[in-house]
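Good morning C.,

I know you're traveling, so I'll keep this short. The sequence:
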Amino acid sequence: MELKEIERILKESLNVDEVYAQGENAHFGVIVVSDELAALSKLKQQQAVYAPLMPYFSTGEIHALTIKTYTTEKWKRDRLLHQFS
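The C-alpha cells, ready to paste straight into the viewer:
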C-alpha cells in the first residue's frame, strides 16, 4: 500500500490538520495532527484511525499500524523531533 494513499484516506475520513505515514511491507506508522482526535481517549483515537483503514487490514495490505496523535500546538513544538515535514 502506498503511503500517500494512507494519508489521503485518513485526511478524507477524519477531521485532521495533518497526516504523515511511513513504513513498508504492510507495517506502517502514522502521525495524526488533530485537536479533535487528540482530545479522545487512546482507545477512541485508535478506533477512529483504524475504521477507515479496516478494508486494507482484511486484504493484508496493512498488517500492523502504529498511531501517534498530536494536538496542533504540541505538533508545532515536537515536529522537529520527527523526520516528517
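Safe travels,
E.
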